Protein: GntR family transcriptional regulator
Amino acid sequence: MTEAISPETVRARGSGTQSVYAALRAEILSMALSPGSPLDEVRLSERFGMSRTPIREALLRLSADGLVTTLPNRNTIVATIDFAELPTYFDALTLMYRVTTRAAASRRDAVQMAEIRRHQRAFAEAVEAHDAYGMIEANREFHVAIAVLGGNPYYVTFFSRLLDEGRRILRLYYSTFDDRLPRQYVDEHEAFIVAIEAGDVEECDRLAIAHAAQIVRQIQEYVARDMSKATAIQNL
Structure:
């Protein structure tokens, strides 16, 4: 007869899975765990001080997110970055900049605008402090907050995932500035805020296109200039 599992045990395991998932996800997205890094269940179990079951469940969630890969020999590694897929990624990213910013300009919500401004202040402070991880996090939250103001939850979900997938590329890009991001990025965000508050849909669209084009161009130049580094990262 199978022994019953108590609700407390289920909750404890779920909590353990979530903590492992959150920690590894943050390390992968920030590049603290580089593409291709091995993720051994035994070592992770020792590191987090828990059984292999929540470790395995956390890795399954990360796999569903596209952040880890299980190899034919059943070893698990941090997913590599497929630079060949960048053009399609950039197409989707550009589209989401445009539709979310246009949608935000057509709505009015003082509370959500305050949230957008809060993330913009965090971004400006991170740029001033040369804090790359802070910049990446605040940039994500700034654009997600704009999507939330736009009012389409499907856009919010899709754009959030795109921005998460792009964190590793953005981290590599920021490193080309020695984490000293030009002030123009802060100014571009401010221009978004002004256009959204003015309800200027066409100006929002123009700014979104220019913002996306600049990021795409600079990342493409980085990859082309440092292809040996990019290839090394991809093939770890």
About this structure: Residues 7-78 form a domain with the Arc Repressor Mutant, subunit A fold (CATH 1.10.10.10).
